[in-house]
Queue: 3 jobs
Job 1
Amino acid sequence: MARFTGINHMAMVTADMDRTIAFWRDLLGCRLVTGLGHPGYRHYFFELTEHDMIAFFEWPDLDNCPEKDHGVPVKGPACFDHVSFELASQDELWELRDRLEAADIWVSEAVDHGFIHSIYTFDPNGIAIEFSVPLPDVDIRSTPVMVDSEPTALAREGADPVPGRWPEPDRFTPPEEREVYPGEGDQIRQAAKKKHS
């Protein structure tokens, strides 16, 4: 059975890669570890943790989805491309591909992305899923690479966050002012207590 090691990357979309770099790299502090493509088609990856990344396709004619409250159901267009789950080995990638084919579920051929090998399929809900295995000889986190034929202006600044692009807070919320609003936390805590009693 496949051993998942984490989410390799979530693939999102943007119409403005530089605005996305400014937010994810410079404001949130996620390193830009690789960029693929050329004007009209870019695919850039930001490091979230030592195992997890978020990636963005740049599609210049994209219309952003309207903002909606988190968790509120939506009817109509939604903004998501695919999520990539990381597997522990090449053998597991091929075993999983064989299992999907045996179950008569469409699965792609294995694709070499230069730093990962991947297969693609869809879950029963139509969610696009990728399964990826990192290649041991190419570590884009320790050695970021940019192979976009014409990197965006902010991508040319490098992998690491650029200080000073965003204003610093005037003040941080002290512990005595940190108010947490109730969600479903009490239900979770009570159910957890019942299981342990």
Job 2
Amino acid sequence: MDDDACALVADALVETSARGVTTHGLRLLPGYLDDLARGVANPRPKFETIRESGPSALLDADAALGVVAGLTGAREAVRRAAEYGVAAVLVRNSNHFAAASIHSRAMSRAGMVGWAMTSASSRVAPHQGRDPLLGTNPISVAAGNGDHEFALDMATSQVCLGEVRERGRRGRSLDPGWALDPYGRDTRDPARAAALTPLGPGHKGQGLGMVVTLLTAALADAPLDWQLDHIEWAQAGEGRKVAHFLLCLDPARFAGRDAFAERLRDLVDTTRNAPAASAAAVRCPGDPERHREREAARDGIPLDPDTARALYVLARDHDIDAPGLRDAARRTP
């Protein structure tokens, strides 16, 4: 990969881990390198504009890593929104997206309101269903900056698969309502989890998940969730054909940037100061991640032993001296 693309991926994974989203951070690096080695991801993709018209565009990512594909789409959305006030960019023929907030925050850092979504392989049973049909299909919306940044990043399932696997690695049970066993019954055993459950209760999470599939795969003429390879099962030499949706709005074209910034500050501050029902304060989307990011900037990124070992092996194989990783890898969970 060229240096610019490498920097995009490295910064995305470090930022995500620093913000405490360990399931989508540095833990993904070995898998991404494996995708490159097996030809699932293209290290030198040639992006192609399939169709464009003013504020809209459909790009083919040529099997790029999803971080590169999504951020390329985000940049294109920012460029078009600066000209037209709003832009919608679809990217198809991509791979794993990483954390959706990487892409929405890339647009918000440019002074825009950013909305990012991606299709994903089937992990989630529909409401009242038993078998996986939909992906975890995340939605991320970001605006503002600093202490008044709004940064929503949520799956449309109760929990992401990475958290289920993490509970299994640590010998911890799942929360009720997170997953179904092969017979469609609620299970708290990570090893028995055959399908995740949609965000609930009721049908609403399924509806949101289908909206994501509609605005990504269906709109881009890409494979639907159940037609995608899972991240760990992709065939060598063939990309996963994931589709992404990037929506960008320029506040300057609506009520104005200053007015928007003032209203956003009021929205965030009023929400945080709302009376709490318990000792835990009311928070806004992005508050926990921003707090962890500040801790990481001060103390470093805490790594679980499994991730530390995986990164240490990579460092050793590439002749990189990494005593901190070696020490972390020796710790027990």
Job 3
Amino acid sequence: MRYKGINHIALATGDLNATIRFWRDLVGLRLIAGLGKPGYRQYFFEIGPRDMLLFFEWSDVRPLPEKDHGVPVKGSFGFDHLALEVETLEDIWQIYDRFKAADIWVSEVLDHGFIYSLYSFDPNNIAIEFSWANPEFDLRNTPRMQDSKPAFEAHNGSDPVSGVWPAVQEPTLKQERKIYPGEGSELRNKENKW
């Protein structure tokens, strides 16, 4: 299997208009698709050539309680922050200046060694990070482990290890493969509302 990237990350909002103004008009992501019916919407924003950000609008969703990026929590939890990579260091400074001009809190630019980052929150209190990859420390080409006590499984290195999970014994035959219509299939069948 080969992965191309993250197709989309799905988040939720109770205020799609504020979310569009933030992600499209302030952050600069194109709004590329919208689906909706009474009580339910989903809108897609383009992050890059392969990656999208999706927001479901559900009427009873409230903004998250504010939680700083990377600060440990207790109890059930599954998401800390969303990090978007920009092409140039100048892009970081443009975002910084735009957030300051909009009077939206934004951190100072931080040097994390392999990336330079700044942090903020969207209207839903979703913690976001904007990062520029430092070309001197490309972790994709040269993975590094600096944990003084790595997790047991990390000792096997960075590449996937075969034999950990059962091998497929009976793959689905081509004549048995079925694809069913799902939410969004109407994007290719209906008149464009723009």
